[in-house]
Amino acid sequence: MTKIIAAVIVGxxxxxxxxxxxxxxxxxxxxLAPENTLEAFKTALSIGVTTxxxxxxxxxxxxxVVSHDSRLNxxxxxxxxxxxxxxxxxxxxxxxxxxxxxxxxxxLKPGTALAATFPEQRGMDGVRIPTLMEVFDLVRRAxxxxxxxNIETKLTPTSGADxxxxxxxxxxxxxxxxxxxxTARVGIQSFRSIGAHLRSCVAxxxxxxxxx
Length: 212
Description:
- By secondary structure, the protein is of the alpha/beta class.
- Helix content is 31%, strand content 15%.
- Strands 1, 2, 3, 4, 5 and 6 form a six-stranded mixed β-sheet that branches.
- Helix 6 links the parallel strand 5 (148-153) and strand 6.
- Helix 2 packs parallel to helix 5 and helix 6 runs parallel beside helix 7 (194-211).
- The radius of gyration is 17 Å and the shape is globular.
């Protein structure tokens, strides 16, 4: 249980609802299942988390997908040939959704620091990078109306063409959340430079208010 708490769940006290203790599944439940995948989020729901923490990227055709890395990570990514990537793969922003989902992210590459960090992660085959809407649909099908989402838009000051600009990212994220009717259950964060972060937050608030 200690390992599960340390590797899977982050506990925090939230301001809303007052005094509530929020159990967050980091990247789903990456200590137990492949991170940021539907399998990880299913596992997180099964062990009683109240918030799913996840990361966003965007494909070249404008689809929001769940990934911590802006480029395909060779430590847990296999190509269509079933082999682990030898080096960092292409930026998700430069691939279509169909191209992204040709890759399998269901296992940790043996011998890597990541594999040593999560020895209890259950490897599996045929696991794809999911879209944000697929994660929302998973929770809806589970009738888990109490579940919240802590979503990070993966932007850095040096990401350049590897990620969309803050305004594009903000607009797409707001649209997806509103279409899923989950505005009351979603928090959005970004750790880019202060200026870009503020622009993202302002854009989010403005677009939400304008669409209300």
